[in-house]
Design goal:
Aspartate Aminotransferase, domain 1; Aspartate Aminotransferase, domain 2; 13 helices; 15 strands; globular
Length: 393
């Protein structure tokens, strides 16, 4: 087989996986790999998890799709489970994180128009990533993502990340702002965590200004950072929160959850999705959410993430090329003092699947089911991979 029939949108690595089990993947030659990336944070329960497999098989044997012209029992069950878990009131289901963010953007704009604001603005931050649709790439704080796709969608006001004073300055000088959209932790931006108290201060400012506080938890959500959503560890409630990735362990689904006036803004005809919230995707997501909750995998993410960071800190303490080891739960970044993209290929050769983001930061997003022994071994293997790279450069 070749990739000649596919558009050249990906710089694919020279490997094809045939199957997986737990935190491991296997290629066509039977070689085993530690999947420390989990499909870019998607495979929260690892590979071939029995609960997800059973849910998909049972639902596929009944029906896969009916459309949102009719009630969908699995969608209603999943919506209630998510809202109860994260203190939201209503949810719109889509097929991806970008689509979930599109829904949030539309909520903010309609909210603004309902207040009589002709050109409502949404604050977004530098270094953010919200998707690759036209609105979400326009909202993204990375010029590289936007280049070549101008004209961008208007209506976004840009600010530095983790800078509450910059937000207050905007509040004093722009009366058209109606919302802020921000990631609790910058994922594609290099696993950057904000200053302590930043999100609380954003919440307070939004209350003062009657802005919607919208959190993009596409990557940080679904147990990855140690609570079901990252904001739950900050003692706040946003007005809108979006998620996707780990929600259904690889079956495409996204969700835009809201409370208060944001939950009431969209009305019939304002928004929709042909496939969003279909019975199959919701069955898979129900299995994932119920497993995360019943097995306390958010707590496991917190413990195993701390173990990995501590072990890597000890292993790399004498390496001057390491600028920082940071993250929350099983969302971890190791920042080097140099570009390190070739570590991805080196890791593949060594049987370790990782990612490099922001040019100089190794990002790992292991499955939430990782055990203490596996976490320790991962920290050792990744430390050795980085040390060998530093020694060769």
């Amino acid at each position: 087989m070749t990739t000649e029939s596919l558009m050249s949108t990906y710089g694919r690595l020279p490997v094809c996986f045939t199957h997986g089990e737990g935190i491991y993947l296997y290629d066509e030659d039977g070689k085993r790999y530690v999947d420390a990336l989990a499909g870019i944070g998607v495979n929260a329960l690892g590979h071939a998890h029995p609960a997800v497999t059973q849910a998909i098989c049972e639902q596929a044997g009944k029906m896969i799709h009916t459309s949102n012209l009719y009630r969908i029992e699995n969608q209603e069950r999943l919506g209630q489970l998510l809202c109860d878990t994260v203190e939201m009131e209503r949810v719109f289901f889509s097929n991806s994180g970008a689509e979930a963010n599109e829904a949030a953007i539309k909520i903010a704009r309609l909210y603004g128009h309902n207040k009589g604001i002709k050109k409502p603005g949404i604050i977004v931050v530098e270094g953010s990533f919200h998707g690759r649709t036209m609105a979400t790439l326009s909202a993204t704080g990375n010029r590289k993502i936007q280049a070549g796709f101008e004209p961008l969608v208007a209506g976004f006001v840009r600010a530095p990340y983790s800078d509450i004073e910059a937000l207050r300055h905007i509040a004093n000088n722009n009366s058209d702002v109606v919302a802020i959209l921000v990631e609790p932790i910058l994922g594609e931006g290099g696993v950057v965590t904000p200053d302590a108290g930043y999100l609380k201060a954003v919440r307070e400012l939004c209350d003062q200004q009657q802005w919607l506080m919208m959190l993009d938890e596409v990557q940080t959500g679904n147990g990855r950072t140690g609570t079901y959503f990252a904001y739950q560890g900050c003692g706040i409630l946003p007005d809108v929160v979006t998620t996707a990735k780990g929600l259904a362990n690889g079956v495409p689904i996204g969700a835009c959850l809201a409370r208060g006036i944001a939950a009431e803004t969209l009305q019939p005809g304002n928004h929709g999705s042909t496939y969003g919230g279909n019975p199959l995707a919701c069955a898979a997501a129900l299995a994932v959410v119920e497993t995360i909750k019943s097995e306390h995998l958010d707590k496991n993410a917190a413990a195993m993430g701390a173990l990995i960071r501590d072990n890597m800190g000890e292993n790399l303490k004498d390496c001057s090329a390491i600028k920082d080891i940071r993250g929350q739960g099983l969302m971890i970044g190791i920042e080097l003092d140099r570009e390190c993209g070739e570590l991805v290929g080196n890791g593949l050769h060594a049987g370790l699947l990782i990612n490099v983001t922001a040019g100089n930061t190794v990002r790992i997003l292991p499955p939430l089911i990782i055990s203490e022994q596996q976490a320790t071994e991962l920290a050792t293997e990744l430390s050795n991979l980085i040390l060998n790279f530093i020694g060769d450069n």
